[in-house]
Every structure is written in structure tokens, then in C-alpha cells.
Sequence to fold (208 residues):
Amino acid sequence: MNDATVQLDAVRAQLLGAGITLDIQKKSVKNINFRLKPYRLQCSVPHRLSMSQMAHAISQRVAWALTHHPQVVMQQQSQQLSSSMTVLWGQEQPFALNDTAKLRYYRNQLQTVIPELFVKWQPIVGATANEVRIKKMHTRWGSCNTRARRVWLSVYLPAYPIECTEYVIVHELCHLHHANHSPAFWRTLRQAMPDYQYWHDRLAGRTP
Fold:
């Protein structure tokens, strides 16, 4: 097994760790092209490119794929939500709403549960947010301004089981301890919510 093959195998393993498969296709193109889709990284590779050159080029794109993949998945989920029937906390509702009414409905539902969920989780995480806001986000389920201690939640969250909203709240509160996604951050998250991975995967569409 040559070095290029070893390098590609390592890349595949790293991507698979995030649920992303690597799809390499030899094509009549001038340059190597990358296209990131939900759970797949497509690579169109010129016929002239050697195995070593290909392995090196793809390895340089791993960090990019891992960073942007959650946003790609979120965009797909948002598009599906806007075109599907009304779902509240993971349960289909006996009425249909247009996109504008659905967002208003979700916002109201989220505003209703936010106070009690933060009262529940802030003592467990050991961090308190100064402010919580709701926003129409297509690339994230939540975000946190650590300096202002302000948490933003996606208006689309009520379309999923309420535990998904709890996970996002815990995730953002943990950022008040660790601003990045360091190993320490994930340890803090796991300590606060041991089953967080299931709800993370549910938001990502990996579990039913």
C-alpha cells in the first residue's frame, strides 16, 4: 500500500467520523472540483492527476468539509420544513399553515417554553444567559455571543422533539464556559446532557 492510498484511507476515516462519505470521480475537467452535500463530499478529479496529487488535494479540503457540513445539513432541513406540513415538537398537527404563519406559530411556541427550559438547564450547565432571542436561521440551530452572554435559537426548532431544543440550549450555554468546540467543550456538554448525541443526530436527520 503506497503513501497516497494510506493518506486517502485516513481522509475517508476522518470524514466518516462526521458521517460524511467521500465520493471520487475521474472526469474530463481541468481542475479538481469539490461539492459538499449532506453526508457526502463529491470530488471531480481530472484524469491527468496522479494518485499522490489527488490525495494531497483532498486532504487539504477535510477541515473545510467538517466545518461547513453542519450548515449544509441545516439548509436542507430548513428547506424540507418550509415545504412540509405543520409539525410541532415532532408531532404532525391536524392543520396546515403557509410559510409565514408557520414561522409565527413556531416563534410563539418557542417563546412559551424558553423560560422554563432555561430555568431547568442553567443550573445544570452552571452558566446563565443574559438574553435569549429567536431568529430565522438557515445555517445554525443556535448561536451564542459569549461577550454579551446572548443566546439565539432557530425559529425552526419547534418542528423537532422538544429535547432537540433542550440540546441546542445546553450546547449554547456550554459555550459560555468554552467559546470554541474544544475537547473541554464536548466534555462539559456530555456532563450536562449525557444523551446529547442522539438529539444532535436527530437535528442532523441521522435518526428518525
Observations:
- Helices lie at 3-16, 51-59, 62-83, 99-125, 162-174, 183-192, 196-203.
- The chain has seven helices and eight strands.
- The chain has a mean pLDDT of 88.
- The CA atoms of residues 4 and 52 lie 5 Å apart.
